[in-house]
Every structure is written in C-alpha cells, then in structure tokens.
Specification:
Length: 204
C-alpha cells in the first residue's frame, strides 16, 4: 500500500465518520422546525377569544330572552353583535403575534360581513328570520373562520349553530330560541376550554 493510498483512506475515514451525527442533527433540526412552526401557528391564531365572545354572548342570550321576551331578542343581538365584533377586533389588533396579512384580511372581511348581515336581518328583514337568521349567519361565518384558521373547534361551533337553528326552525319548537342558545353556548364554552389548553401548550 503506497503512502498516497494510505493518506486517502485516512482522509475518507475522517470525512465519513461525522456523517451519522450530521444526519441525526439534521433530523433533529427538521423536527425542531416542525415543532416551532406548529407552536407559532397556534400562538398566532388565538381563536379562543372570539369563541369566548360567542360563548358569553350566546349563553347570556338565554336570561336576556327570559327577561326581555323573545320579541325583544333582536334588540339584544343588535347590541351584543357589534360589541362582540369590536372586542374581537381589539384583541387581534393589540396582539404582539399577528397572523399573516392574507389570513387577517379574510377574517376581517368575514367578520364585517357577519355583522352587516346580522344587523340587516334584525332591522330590515323581520318575521321568522329574526330568530333563525342570526344563528345561520353565525354558523356560516364561523365555518369560514374554521377554514381560515384550520380550527376543528370553530368548525364544531359553526356546525352546532347551523344545525340546531335549522332543526328548531323545521320543528317549530316553542322554546327554540333558548334551546339553540344553550346548545351553541355550551359547545362554544367547551371549545374555549380546548383552545386555551392548546394555546398554553404552545408556550411550552
């Protein structure tokens, strides 16, 4: 074996020896990037707050309906819908971690359309749609939010709102308004709890 061949083998062995640690480090880096990306996505999409607004507004609608009567339920939503929209907008605008611009525009436009549709139903349409319409608007709007945020919890609340409102409208229950509010409010409250846990784990 010549000295040139010996030197070549030594160099090849030295260059090949770190290959396994380098591959392990690369796999670890990829895993860390995926973990950080998942945590960043959850921290930049705090859907628990708008769900909290929905839960509070919907559950509070039950005693409000008892006190004011279902004929005055439109007045309640005329106050709570803008208040919830303003609170959610303030929350997202003041966060340090902001969502991507495209996602933010979709959420903002959807929220504005939901508010305008709800107010139109309450003030200009009237009739039986006053009781059912806002729940359908809520379900459709939350469905768009669920697609934008890729959130299963929002999708469940959206489904609860749309399905329960449709079922009550078709069955013509006497206490349908309170029943829909109870179902949607409880589902939203559970969703808030789940999202708070997910948001807390994102900081770990």
């Amino acid at each position: 074996m010549t000295s040139l061949t010996l030197r070549c083998k030594v160099v090849c062995m030295n260059s090949a020896s770190p290959s396994k640690p380098s591959a392990d480090e690369a796999r670890q880096l990829v895993g860390d990037i995926e973990t950080w990306s998942d945590q960043g996505r959850r921290m930049s999409s705090p859907v628990w707050f708008p769900l909290l607004c929905v839960a509070v507004a919907v559950l509070a609608a039950i005693p409000a309906g008892i006190v004011l009567g279902e004929s005055w339920s439109g007045l309640y939503w005329a106050v709570m819908a803008p208040a919830s929209a303003v609170a959610s907008g303030w929350f997202f605008a003041t966060r340090r971690v902001q969502p991507p611009v495209k996602l933010g525009v979709v959420v903002l436009v959807t929220g504005v359309v939901m508010l305008l549709a709800t107010m139109t139903l309450l003030w200009f349409v009237g009739g039986p749609w006053v009781a059912v319409g806002p729940w359908l608007v809520l379900g459709i709007g939350l469905g768009i939010f669920a697609l934008a945020w890729r959130s299963i919890t929002i999708a469940l609340v959206a489904a609860a709102s749309a399905v329960s409102a449709t079922a009550v409208a078709l069955a013509d229950f006497d206490s349908g308004y309170a029943l829909v509010a109870l179902v949607v409010g409880l589902v939203a409250a559970i969703a808030v709890f789940v999202e708070l846990i997910r948001t807390d784990t994102a900081h770990v």
